[in-house]
């Protein structure tokens, strides 16, 4: 998982930055991170519980030091963004960065914050617009499946809102989510603009099964996606975006 695009966007650094400049900026970020508020939010027990349940099948997330870095990342983000109420989605999105940058808390935090800023995570209007645009594209590209969802009374907010909001960090197995985000970061500066098209590709991949499912089965499948060929769905997403 790489977030050089995200970091550069956040700090407005030129892409040709020298190694010396990068080192200096890294040291500045470490100092800045250490100066951030160290107070935990009021609902810290809830956050600790969510971190404690996050991918416990992976040994790294059982380590106390990793949990401490995880908690600091989420707590600092909430302290620096007081308009943002805690959302369990934050745990899943921060978790991808924790997995990669757990040994560098300042880089971890700034990568995470930069992505959240880019996605406009704290503004519900952004999520609602993304949801509306995606559902319109879904209706136009797969009308039969769309109407099956309607017949089964599957509400878009039961699945598609999280798909847009978490960029599938909640729904995909961790290795698949990391591969997906890595593709977005590597694609170009607007790589995350591919996301709705990739989501449509995933629906096409699952369409045959989904058409046979009833409401509860549909929602469960869309909230717990199987392992997917991420390269394949991303390639289809790129084709749909062009």
Automatic annotation (TrEMBL):
Residues of the Rab-GAP TBC domain: 1-188
Molecular function via GO: GTPase activator activity
Highest rank taxon of the organism: Eukaryota
Pfam families: RabGAP-TBC (PF00566)
UniProt cross-references to PROSITE patterns, sorted A to Z: TBC_RABGAP
TM annotation in the entry: none
The protein, known as: Rab-GAP TBC domain-containing protein
